[in-house]
């Protein structure tokens, strides 16, 4: 077994105001290479764009940005969205419109019949102001 810690962010404080100038105590992902497959555990991703700011004020657009960020992280490890086996989704609002937005955008990224196991939880606050959604992903890739 080989374990690799993946740090993608240039800003080691991850834009977390309370940690300005300090390194955040987590990795963007952890890759575990086993004999016949690779596991990838992707830390919670927010809707942060290439400039390090929350991309939008809408649940729909934030969900799309989060899933793009997850896709990018998985691609850098050699995988794809079809390799995701489980997601944990944290949202600021769990009203009908928000749930619909999240699920409609998810359908853009996952194929029918190949949907990952999923948990959806409402939370009171995120570490970044303006965030509406955060998603973690567990990935299994063939070797």
TrEMBL record:
Highest rank taxon of the organism: Bacteria
CDD domains for this protein: YjgF_YER057c_UK114_family
Cleaved signal peptide residues: none
InterPro entries referenced in this protein's UniProt entry, alphabetically: RutC-like_sf, YjgF/YER057c/UK114
Protein name stated in the entry: Putative enzyme of the alternative pyrimidine degradation pathway
Native source organism of the sequence: Mesorhizobium plurifarium
């Amino acid at each position: 077994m080989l374990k690799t810690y993946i740090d993608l962010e240039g800003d080691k404080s991850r834009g977390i105001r309370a940690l300005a100038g300090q390194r955040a105590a987590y990795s963007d992902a952890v890759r575990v290479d086993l004999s016949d497959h690779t596991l990838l555990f992707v830390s919670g991703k927010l809707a942060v764009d290439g400039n390090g700011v929350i991309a939008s004020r809408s649940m729909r657009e934030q969900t799309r940005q989060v899933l793009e960020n997850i896709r990018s992280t998985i691609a850098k490890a050699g995988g794809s969205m079809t390799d995701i086996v489980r997601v944990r989704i944290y949202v600021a609002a769990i009203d009908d419109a928000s749930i619909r937005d999240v699920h409609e955008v998810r359908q853009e990224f996952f194929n029918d019949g190949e949907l990952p196991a999923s948990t959806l939880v409402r939370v009171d606050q995120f570490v970044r102001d303006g965030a509406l959604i955060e998603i973690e992903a567990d990935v299994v890739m063939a070797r």
